[in-house]
């Protein structure tokens, strides 16, 4: 019995050793495959972008007067090598116009961030330029509004992100109207008491048909009177870089704005073909084939509606690592750190995602 028991024990140890060896080989193989994939991505980027565009490093921006919101939004632009590639091709304005030219001042700031050896630089010149367009310092800004302001000042427009579709509920007359959005504004509150659970839920709710009845009825030319209509949004085109605004600030009364801190998970990968139905899209198969996104940045807000602070979590497109940009302080973080911005209803002053910036896969 003793010999047989010892033999069985040695056999079990041998099997365990072999199993652990196989697991180790599998981990090594997975690491090698991941390393090869990263090297392949870097080679593809190098073939498309110049050396200067690939130097976008994690450099901080000093707070120059309640400028945490501006700093966070600027980092999203300047860490995007697809944007900086365009920025480097702008025509240099005449000397008299340079101080008021937003694109030129952004280019100067980018050069300062890349050429210096400092861990942070001052955006004061760009801030002075923006103040001429009523973007003031020492004022609390909303990140979504500031993002739109910068886009409008740079005259960067998207192409037909969606189509508004109206159908009369009496005679089925349909009317369509093209419209463009720079930011996709997603409510996270379904009703006064019902919170949406995930980003996918918010997108489905946004594109879900809504009945216009009672005082919201529309005039139907075919019926000759105001009738209930079914309003829906049909997606036609999506941009290379998609910005989603999570509407966490809402009016409880006419004079009181409340911040919603509830938990709202968002994925690293987003496929609109999976989220939306055929009735919510009006695009050909070639367009839909390009509707796969991966998360590039998160602009997060902490605090309340009356006072707060912004920072940005951005995934480097050259290093494929996540960084947290908190004004002049920059540090590498993990995906678990980014997920802390999902929010929690019990953390009234906690950090919550406010802007999500997704980028199409395989842009190169």
Features:
10 helices; globular; 364 residues; four-stranded antiparallel beta sheet; alpha+beta; eight-stranded mixed beta sheet
Provide an overview of this structure.
The chain is α+β, with helices and mostly antiparallel strands and 364 residues long. It is built from 10 helices and 18 strands. Strands 5, 10, 13, 14, 15, 16, 17 and 18 form an 8-stranded mixed sheet that branches. Strand 11 (249-253) and strand 12 form a beta hairpin. The chain is globular. The termini are far apart.
Q: What distance lies between the first and last C-alpha atoms, to the nearest angstrom? A: 68 Å
- Describe the sheet with the most strands: 8 strands, mixed
Specify the helix fraction band: 25-40%
Mean pLDDT: 80
DSSP, total strands: 18
Uncertain residue segments: 46-52, 156-165
Strand content: 25-35%
Structure annotation, total helices: 10
User: Oligomerization state of this entry?
Assistant: single chain
Q: Secondary-structure element sequence? A: HEHHHEHHEEEHEEEEEEEEHHEEEEHE
Overall SS class = alpha+beta
Measured on Cα atoms, how large is the radius of gyration? Answer: 25 Å
The gross shape turns out to be globular
């Amino acid at each position: 019995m003793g010999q047989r028991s010892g033999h069985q024990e040695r056999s079990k140890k041998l099997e365990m050793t072999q199993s652990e060896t196989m697991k180790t080989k599998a981990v090594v193989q997975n690491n090698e495959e991941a390393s090869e994939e990263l090297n392949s991505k870097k080679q593809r980027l190098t073939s498309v972008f110049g050396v200067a565009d690939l130097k976008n490093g994690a450099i901080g921006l000093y707070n120059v007067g309640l400028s945490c919101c501006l700093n966070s939004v600027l980092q999203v632009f300047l860490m995007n090598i697809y944007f900086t590639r365009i920025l480097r091709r702008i025509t240099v304005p005449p000397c008299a116009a340079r101080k008021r030219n937003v694109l030129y001042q952004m280019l100067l700031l980018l050069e300062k961030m890349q050429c210096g050896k400092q861990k942070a630089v001052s955006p004061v010149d760009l801030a002075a330029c923006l103040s001429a367009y009523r973007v003031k310092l020492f004022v609390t800004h909303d990140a979504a509004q500031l993002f739109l302001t910068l886009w409008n000042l740079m005259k960067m427009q998207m192409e037909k992100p969606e189509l508004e579709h109206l159908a009369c509920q009496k005679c089925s007359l349909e009317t369509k109207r093209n419209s463009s959005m720079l930011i996709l504004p997603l409510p996270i509150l379904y009703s006064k008491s019902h919170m949406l659970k995930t980003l996918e839920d918010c997108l489905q709710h946004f594109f879900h048909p809504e009945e216009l009845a009672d005082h919201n009825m529309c005039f139907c030319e075919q019926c000759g009177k105001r009738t209930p209509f079914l309003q829906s949004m049909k997606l036609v085109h999506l941009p290379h870089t998609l910005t989603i605004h999570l509407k966490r600030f809402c009016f409880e009364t006419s004079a009181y704005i409340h911040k919603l801190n509830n938990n709202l998970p968002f994925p690293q990968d987003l496929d609109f073909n999976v989220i939306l139905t055929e009735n919510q899209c009006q695009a050909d198969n070639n367009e839909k084939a390009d509707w796969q996104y991966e998360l590039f940045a998160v602009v997060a807000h902490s605090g309340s509606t009356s006072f707060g602070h912004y920072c940005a979590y951005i995934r480097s497109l050259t290093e494929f690592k996540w960084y947290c940009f908190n004004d002049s302080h920059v540090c590498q973080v993990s995906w678990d750190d980014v997920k802390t911005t999902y929010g929690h209803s019990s953390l009234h002053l906690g950090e919550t995602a406010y802007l999500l910036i997704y980028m199409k896969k395989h842009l190169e």
